[in-house]
Structures are given as C-alpha cells and as structure tokens.
Amino acid sequence: MKKNNPQEKPQEHLIKDARKLVEAYPKVPLTVDCAIFGFEESQLKVLVIKSDLELYEGHYSLLGDIVKDNEELDEAAYRVLKERTGMDDVFLDQVRAFSHPARHPGGRVITVAYCSLLNINHHQLKIHDNDLNWHSVSTLKDMAFDHKDIVDECYGWLQKRIQEHPLGFNLLPEKFSLRELQNLYEAILGVSLDRRNFRKKFASMDLLIDINEMEQDVPHRPGKLYKFNFEKYETSKRKWIGIDF
Amino acid sequence: MKKNNPQEKPQEHLIKDARKLVEAYPKVPLTVDCAIFGFEESQLKVLVIKSDLELYEGHYSLLGDIVKDNEELDEAAYRVLKERTGMDDVFLDQVRAFSHPARHPGGRVITVAYCSLLNINHHQLKIHDNDLNWHSVSTLKDMAFDHKDIVDECYGWLQKRIQEHPLGFNLLPEKFSLRELQNLYEAILGVSLDRRNFRKKFASMDLLIDINEMEQDVPHRPGKLYKFNFEKYETSKRKWIGIDF
DNA sequence: ACAAAGTTGTGTATTTTTTACACAAAAAAG
DNA sequence: CTTTTTTGTGTAAAAAATACACAACTTTGT
Q1: CA of A17: which chain B residue's CA is closest?
Q2: Which of A36, A73, A182, B27 could disulfide-pair with A47, CB 3.0 to 4.6 Å?
C-alpha cells in the first residue's frame, strides 16, 4: 500500500513499450498432450494412437496438438479431446509441463500434459482413424517421444487425486454398482480392498444416491445402482487439516 | 509388442523429417515465475520485486525470466533463484502453467509457475537491488501481470503439500524448536493447533532428531532443538492408501 | 531477591476412525 | 435343483485424533 512519495528516487529504466519487450523474447514451440483415461473390463486404459513420425513407426503416442496463437492451454487440450472423442463435458486437468530439450526428435518442443477421464462407452469415437485405440495402462511400453513418462506422471497424479477427490465417477457410467466402484479403485490403486469396509466408507460419506434400480444383464445376483451426489459434494467439501507424511 | 507383419497395410503419410515438422509449429514466448517463500517473524513471506514495466509502476511482481533456448524449465527456474538469492540448494517444484492470452500486456506470454522454499536467514541477498524484498503473503495485493493468481495458486499448493510432505523444514533453520515448527504450520495453514497434540504427532512420526541443544537468546525458557531426519524419511516414505473426500 | 511474563514439557480419558473378519440369501447358468 | 457368483450386512478390536491443565524453567524488570 505504499504511495509514491517525492523522496523516493524515481525508478529508472522503466520499460514503456511492453510489446517491444515481448517481441524480443525467444519463442518455443508449445504443445499439449492428453493422457485420456478410460475404464473397461476392470482395467484402466489410456487412449493412444500410432505415431505419425517415421522415426517412431509402430510406437504409440498420446493425443496432442500444438497450442494455437492466443489459445489457452486448457482450450487446446479440450480441442484435442473433442476432436478425437467427440465429447465435450469431460474431466480435464493440467498435470505439468515437460521440457527436456531432446524430448522431440524434431527439435525443442515444450509440452504441457493433461489428464482426462471419461466413460469409454459414452462416445462413439472414430476408433479406427489412424489406429486410435484404448490400451491397458499396465502393459504400455515403447511409446513415442517421452510419452511413457507423461503417462506415468499422469497415472501417479490420478492415483493420488482419486483418493482425495471424487474423480473416479468420471470413468464410470452415471449409474453404477458398488462393485464397479470398488473394481475401479482397486484397478487404479493396484491394491485389493475389503469389500465391507469399502462399502461402509462410502455409506458414511453419504454421497451416493440410491436410485432404487438394480443391475441388468449381469451373470449373478444384481446389485443396487447408485449415482454420485455431485451437488452435495460441492456444497460440503471437506476441509481437512492434518499432518501426515 | 506388435511386430510389423506383411498383412498390415503400410501406414501412409509417415513423416520423415521431424525437424521440418517442428519448424512449422507456431512459437510462443515462454517464461518461468517463481513464488519464493520464506518464513520470518511467524509469517509466511514471498520474495517480490518492483515491476520494471511502466504500466505496472509501483506494483510488485514475482521473480521470473524467459526460458532460454535448450534450457529445461527447472533449470530456468533454478537460474532465477540463484541469480537473485545466491543460493543453490533450495527446494523448487513446478506448480503449473498460466496461459491466459492477455496475462502479459506486451502480448502472448506463457509462464510456468514454480514454488520455492528457503530459509530467509541463509542468504545475504542483494535485497536492495531494484527493491527486491520479502512481503507478507497475507497482505499482498495489486501485483503486476497475473502474479497474484500465481501466488494464490502456489500458496494453495504449499498448504496442501505441507500436510503430506516434509516441505516446511526448508523454511526453517537446520535446528529448530517445536514451537517454531508449530508456528510455521499455523501460519501456513491459517489455523491454530493444539500444542500437546502437535508435539505428540511429531513424536509418533519419529522423524525429528533431538540434538541435545537448547534455544539461545530467546526471552523465555528455551526449548529443545531438533533436526529433521531426512534420511529416515526417504527410506520409509509412507505409502498411504485411503479414500477421503 | 523477588515477582511477573512467557514458554516448556508432559498424560489421560473420550471419541472417532480404521481394520479384520463370516454367513445367509439372491439370481443366473447349466 | 444344484452350482456358481455375488450381494448385503454387523461387531469387536486396534489405532488415531481430540480435548484438556499444571508445575517447572528462564528471562526481564524492579
């Protein structure tokens, strides 16, 4: 809250022309890459495409694109997502930037990684365009560029976030059974959880709405279906204070 | 692990010249900005400098710089830190990229925000260069560019991280008392904590080394001094699995 | 020497949360 | 009608979090 006062010596070398300043900055090519996760057959999958670089022939890469002039990073990631999946109402969050100078064989390219979560069955994607397909995360290898690193980072990000935020529901149908929910957590976290304690935990949160419907077409006793109560969650986000490491 | 087999139709339009591809990418100016936090007089502070843009005369900005050709983002942030504080052995972590097209008055500039934590007394910085100084985080306002947003984001990041990782020790002297540690947590989290439970918590973690020294020059009964046992922490990082939101 | 101020160091009882664990009933498939 | 698979449910024990009070120590000022 300092006011300029006459005793302060005026700052020298103040820059008047911001535009000229920025024009002198070095520039780099910038892209976004999306780790788009889906859940199918009790496995976490990620959407990949065959690389179109000869150098990486046969290797998969993530979906990505350059960032356009005057486009926000979030917009660019969203555009990629929409172009490839046709979906627009999808969870998307920035993870981090990757900047190794040799990460792209064509020269310096910085990329910002995004994590996206969607329900595989909600989209009819042009799956066969250019070998676009879902690949199990656990068996991925030999990706183009540093995309394996990016997937690893995004997967770690997801493992952590899913424990603290209700992200997982983005991977499931709107109506789901507790078994499906537990399978999701077990698959993503790579652990097995006690069924009764898992159910008790969600019951105690009181964020699942029992919609009085049952599973259909399952080869065993059907379970109840639930929806996640996003509204209640939004109005009662828990602010937890604790120290634990 | 697919092998090319003769039945697969050969992919068309494979790009041979990656360099040419990248040369055609649009380019943007890229910077890093560091939210460098310190702890002094039981307050969280952040290192700021008077903006050198006339448009922002009198406003503070974070320390930042352009990212050089072939420089990693981490390197660039580290370079900024070292140039301004003379320190090199400092906690630094990427937070996220900011890309609003109008965030810089000189045109489109993307910046990647970093959070750094250091002990204010460990450096003799050229504090008076260009009005470089420590500013209390809680009373910051009217910053240049979107730097207030960046500080807010980094502060939120810090609040969350400090509860799950032993970052706070970077802000304290190597030897510290439990009171100092508690003051730190209270200041950063903005809460008051029960003193006995706080001490019990750290005692149960068994990560503080009692070095059998006492505080000096405090105007009251001196407390014991501790060091944080980074080695033990590294070898026994807790892998917590739980669901809580 | 003494009093005042400020802080240290410590333990227990209560509540809450987490964990471990088993069985009867439902539906589908054959 | 038998087998298979899964659902739905409760309790006891252990662990963690919380609330809370007092005597002793050191410095400072008188």
Answers
A1: B106
A2: A36
